[in-house]
Amino acid sequence: MVLDKFFISLDNDVIVYFPGQEITGYVHVWNSESKNVKGIYIECRGLAQVSFSRTEQEMRTVYRNGRSHTDVINKTVHYSSKENYFHHRVTISTGNGQVLNKGKHQFPFSFVLPQQIPSSFEGAHGSVRYTIRAVYERRLKWNHECKIPITVNSITDLNAIPEASVPIQASGFKTLGILCCTSNPITAKFWLDRAGYVPGEKMKFNAEVENLTRKRMRGSKIQIIERTNFHATRATESHERVIHESVRGKFKSVELWENHPIIVPPVVSSGLNLCRIIDVAYVLVFSVDPGSLSFNLKVSHDLLIGNVPLRSSFANFQHHNRISVTQGRYGNPSAPAYPGHSIPGTDAYPDLPPPSYEECMFGGNIRDAEDSEHVSYGAGDSYKPRYLTYG
Fold it and tell me: What is the full DSSP assignment across 229-292?
């Protein structure tokens, strides 16, 4: 006989935590008739995983009709690695074969996250993921299981990174044509007042394009690109994805971008600190499209994304919290910061603007290969981390 309901609830309904924070909640058991129970426990796990495949060629020597031949064989090679941060098992009820009476039961639990753990992250070839799994053990029958993800935000304080407050500028040029038949150049440059920003913050992007050719340009474009390296035991796989894009159309001689606003989306901080098998970087790319068969002129510079803003920018943020889970500016759900726990390491900033949490545009699936068919996933097996967001 299955249970009517078996689920996990957390006292922090935002389900976002910091390293070193205590997680408290309940395992709920609803049954319409008395049942035997062997025991109830939870497993709390923090794990980084990387997995990808490549098609590689292998040279093999074979013998045919008494002669050796070298064949080229294509084979699929799988690469993977793991980094375990914690794996705690907490027994919350030792049934010892006793009967659990019908009705609604709740069993409290708590555990403390380690201090030195990275932020949650979902990528194309790997993840940093934190989950809580509850198990209702039964004798001689399959167990009831439920599993939920939580988000961890490890702190990256831009005030502790000198390069974050330094203005940035990048420039480049290109000509059209080949050899002696080249055109006058196309030049492009852009600049920002600094390199470091936090999710929700508004960049003021400035750029200038000078077209000295006789040809009309097809357009120009700004992109913020997230570049991730996934490190397996014997190989590294890189992946890029665009987290912001602004596009403008055709122009003839000069194109100006003046204080163009770019809102930094909710993403993990640069570096993905404390994770040794995944690293994340951000780059701002400004490109000019000459059209026809010519390659784009591209100018780029690294950005620093943190989750504690520069103190000099505090006044730029609205000093209020969202009061409930709402639809965020990126079309994703957002929620106020958890009131029961302050942001670690920010006692020196009493005027720090209160953040909210917003879902990342990228997510994953928390269903693992070792999960049994009897695992339920609360709100579903799809998951997007929530990151500290300001403004």
Answer: EEE-SS-EEEEEEEEEEEEE--BSSEEEEEEEEEEPPS-PPTT-TT-SSEEEEEEEEEEEE--T
